[in-house]
Write a structure and sequence with these properties.
The protein is built from 7 helices and no strands. Helix 2 crosses helix 3. It has 2 domains: 49 residues, no CATH class; 71 residues, AhpD-like, CATH 1.20.1290. The protein has 121 residues and is mostly helical. The protein is globular, with a radius of gyration of 14 Å.
């Protein structure tokens, strides 16, 4: 139940693009992939207290702060755009983080935003 709920939400949020990220996990560690579908996407993303746009900005802030999760950051930047985030909202979120996450992490995140928008045309 939780898995199917999370998988449905994950596919909706990532517009199906997340599947290529999950397949290798499913191949090597199916329980780990299941945990991802059940908890973040089945339990958290389906809560109604925050809208998807807000959830994606929070996720982008967290991934930016980590500084090393660039594939996941790219996936969530695309999801944020699908949820209605503008380029300026994304870049302003990352700019705000420069005081807390540092410039190197934010430069990396800005380059991912640029890459996504370049790919989108």
């Amino acid at each position: 139940m939780r898995y199917s709920k999370g998988k449905k939400e994950f596919d909706r949020i990532t517009n199906g693009e997340g599947e290529k990220m999950m397949q290798p996990l499913r191949d090597i560690a199916p329980d780990f992939e299941r945990f991802i579908m059940e908890y973040p996407f089945g339990d958290l993303y389906t809560r109604t207290e925050l809208d998807l746009k807000t959830r994606e900005l929070i996720t982008i802030a967290s991934l930016t702060t980590l500084g090393y999760a660039l594939p996941q950051l790219k996936l969530h930047i695309k999801a944020a755009i699908e949820a209605g985030c503008t380029k300026s909202e994304l870049t302003e979120t990352i700019t705000q983080l420069s005081a807390y996450a540092g410039f190197p992490a934010c430069i990396n995140a800005m380059m991912v935003v640029k890459e996504v928008f370049d790919e989108m045309g």
